[in-house]
Amino acid sequence: MAMGTSGPAYADDTRGNGGTTGGTQPDQDSGANSGGGTIGAHIRISQSKTGSSGSSSNATSSNANWQPPVCWYEPMYTPEEYEKFIKDAYGGAQEPAADYAKKRDEQKYHKGDDGLWWQVKFRNDNYTTACPVTTDNWEIFVPPADPQPDPNKLTPEILSELAYNSTKLPTPPVLLSPSADRLIVNLGTRVKFAGDFDRVWTTASIDYKGVAMAATTVATPVALRVDAGTADADPQTCTYDLVKGDGGYTVDSKDAGCNVTYRRSSGTGTYPFKASITWKVTWTDSADPDGPARQPALPDGLSTFEQNVTVKEIQSVNR
């Protein structure tokens, strides 16, 4: 039976996240790479800087059905270490923990065999989503040549998904003309955009007890989409390709075939104008962002900025 919102009452209360804070996001700084964080027990996250100005936020998947891994098996113990862990954690435990410990003792902890015990770890510690790991297999023994890898065993693909979920992307620095508080009914809204950022990459890696692997996701900005925030606009949305220059990526919709035109004033209120960058995301099975792209593909990422705009009528006088 797959684990739901809670696990069995084992003696070791850190088995879910290895005693670390799950889902830690990388810190941002002004250097070439951010400070990084950890996920699970030994997975390290590091990210390139997102730009010298402006805000950033966690990447949002363009595929609403995409979800990062909830849990996975991660290398933790040699057979000797595992024996000590089980005896320390389960000594005097009641059922079902006592039966679990007995099962491992009967296996003699695989002492004398080449390999490691891998333990289930979680992306975060709120346990609100089911983990597809059975409660009688919180640890699995993995030999150097694994004949039948468990589908939840940590792989570069799983690392790529964890890197994707940890990615921070800069929000669009959009300027409107007329300004956001002075938009006018039936007058096209010019959108200007200049971003002093380039592609963003995030690496998730592990190097523990001889198990070393990494995956790097690379997010490249490709388009800017704006949404008027109301059906009383024609068109309601416009999408512009981003053009990369010496100073970063730019858009100027002055001569574009698409400019949002409001057909009704916002009255005493406002409209929620949204600007979103679409990022093409690829991944490679190393810490090198220039490594060859691997499959399966990851969904596009989105970073969004929302601002309230005021749209007014211009009164004309007929003589």
What keywords describe this structure?
single chain, 319 residues, mainly beta, 8-stranded antiparallel β-sheet, 4-stranded antiparallel β-sheet, 3 helices, 10% helix, 36% strand, disordered N terminus
What does the model show?
With 319 residues, this protein is mostly beta strands. Helices cover 10% and strands 36% of the residues. Strands 2, 3, 5, 14, 15, 16, 19 and 20 form an 8-stranded antiparallel beta sheet that branches. Helix 1 packs antiparallel against helix 2. It is elongated. The N terminus is likely disordered.
Query: Could you report the average pLDDT, rounded to the nearest whole number?
Result: 86
Number of helices: 3
Instruction: State Rg.
Output: 26 Å
Largest beta-sheet characterization: 8 strands, antiparallel
Helix/strand order, N-terminal first = EEEEEEHHEEEHEEEEEEEEEEEE
Shape: elongated
Measured distance between first and last alpha carbons: 81 Å
Instruction: Give the tally of β-strands.
Output: 21
| Unreliably modeled segments | 1-35
Write down the oligomeric state. single chain
Strand content: 35-45%
* Helix coverage percent: 10-25%
By secondary-structure content and strand pairing, the structural class works out as mainly beta
